[in-house]
Amino acid sequence: MSGRPLDVLEASLGERVSVRLKSGDEYVGDLAGYDQHMNLVLEDVAIPIDGGVEEEAPVEDTTIIRGDNVVSITP
Amino acid sequence: MSGRPLDVLEASLGERVSVRLKSGDEYVGDLAGYDQHMNLVLEDVAIPIDGGVEEEAPVEDTTIIRGDNVVSITP
Amino acid sequence: MSGRPLDVLEASLGERVSVRLKSGDEYVGDLAGYDQHMNLVLEDVAIPIDGGVEEEAPVEDTTIIRGDNVVSITP
Amino acid sequence: MSGRPLDVLEASLGERVSVRLKSGDEYVGDLAGYDQHMNLVLEDVAIPIDGGVEEEAPVEDTTIIRGDNVVSITP
Amino acid sequence: MSGRPLDVLEASLGERVSVRLKSGDEYVGDLAGYDQHMNLVLEDVAIPIDGGVEEEAPVEDTTIIRGDNVVSITP
Amino acid sequence: MSGRPLDVLEASLGERVSVRLKSGDEYVGDLAGYDQHMNLVLEDVAIPIDGGVEEEAPVEDTTIIRGDNVVSITP
Amino acid sequence: MSGRPLDVLEASLGERVSVRLKSGDEYVGDLAGYDQHMNLVLEDVAIPIDGGVEEEAPVEDTTIIRGDNVVSITP
């Protein structure tokens, strides 16, 4: 199980991650925390414009995402 | 796991938070309580008008939200 | 966690509460019981007319609501 | 938690109950059994005609309903 | 809890049962086994024609149905 | 509980099974493994053409199916 | 239970796998990790073009997929 999912999250703390939700929404933010349900804490959150990662519309300082909404997390 | 999701909720007690639900509805209120399922207690609850946080239509004094409806919580 | 969701339910026993379900339905009734899943027992249940709480169409004496249908409970 | 949901079910054994499902279907029958998941056993089951409880189309002698389909139970 | 759901299933072993699924599909077969999740084993399985129980189109010798698909089981 | 669902799966190891998913998709393959969640391992997997079991379009050597997608398994 | 699903995942570490999600999306990547929920870590992730495995559009270096989105994994 080398590189378990939660280990990768732990290693990504402080890094910018992209989170895709089941609703189709995407959040980009600095990963500030998580738990075993993949509940996430993001900081300096932005929503990508036109699916691009270069331009971002700032949204909120801190956002908690409930894990059961998550499809994928890309550090 | 610095800054776990429930720790951020604990630190947000008494603060105004915005809660997005899977239905697309949004609640804004003072966070008065929560539990490990992210069931929430909000007070002085309002629903943002036109998605804006400035103007709010007052709704209810206290509202319990069942956690499995929650997408995100923004303190 | 001051004012946990289940504590607010406990304090609301005997009071009239409004319960919104995921189906969009709303029940108004006296909260007669609950459990840790937010399964609820309502008495003197009514369904609000036109979303108003003043006028109510009486429905049933007692109704058990399974908790996983609940979006929010407003005492 | 006076009048917990399962206590109300226990007190309703042998009584005629109306069960609403997430599919919108409704069953009326004598409550012959249940368990902690709100799985139910109904006997002399009927489906209300035009949503009325007076006229009923008989359906089956005994029906087991899996609890996760249940919205509400009205004794 | 007299006549709990799983007791009724136990008493129905070897009998012909009708199983309604959340998809709307219906299976008729001899109940050969079950477990606590209401996973079922049916034998001599048929699908009712026009919703009738008299005429049946034979389908399979043995079918395992995962319990979370089940709405109701009628012995 | 004679002939429990997992016992039938155990007895079907190495046999060709047909698996119907909630999406409506169907997989046919040799059952190479399973676990208590009904997660499955199929080998020499094919997808039936026109719902028939005679003609099959080969798809993959080995496929793991997550159990919560499964409707039924027919050995 | 020879060849349990998680054993097949363990044996597939480092190999290229194709993951189909409930949304219909498909990811192809090197399996770098997993856990008992079938949460997955993929590296050198690509999305197949026109459903083909030959041509791939590169997407991300590393992606964590939450297990409850997974339909099937093909090593």
TrEMBL record, chains A, B, C, D, E, F, G:
Transmembrane segments: none annotated. Residues 4-75 form the Sm domain. InterPro entries: LSM_dom_sf, Sm, Sm_dom_euk/arc. Pfam families: LSM. PROSITE patterns: SM. SMART domains: Sm. SUPFAM superfamilies: Sm-like ribonucleoproteins (SSF50182). This is LSM domain-containing protein. It comes from Halosolutus amylolyticus.
